[in-house]
Amino acid sequence: HLALLAAGDLDLAVVADTSAQPPPGCTPHHLLDERMYVALPSGHRLAGQADVRLAELADEEWIAADTRPEKTLMRSAPAGGFRPRTGFVAADWIAKQGFVAAGLGVTLIPALAASSARADLALVPLHPDDTPRRRVYAATPHGIAPSPAALAFLALLVEVAAGLTS
To answer: pTM for this one?
Structure first.
């Protein structure tokens, strides 16, 4: 989306990242920070906990979009000393959830996606000290005044995001 924005093919994009930096090459408008949940098979030993520490998941196989944590939702985990062991690579949310439901591993689900998770999964929040926050931004082209339509849409995104965090 950022490449399309930079090329002038988009007026606004909603983007998210777990890095501490805003997205490059655009004008970012911070909307919210969201927590992460660990998606576990429903019968998993940690399925009923109020939250889970990454250390409790050290022996788990992870389903992630890449084998390198810095390219996934686990971007900040290695800095905290946790190195996930990626067992399966899948970029698609539905595929990741299918792997988890089959008992092949665990994955992270952002809070905004939690309501659409499969019913046969257990979602457990990561402990606040371990949670890589996913920052969600509305991005507009750098150095170009947003169109009236983009400004109106941005105002709606800000309003909705404020309602989600209150």
So the answer is: 0.79
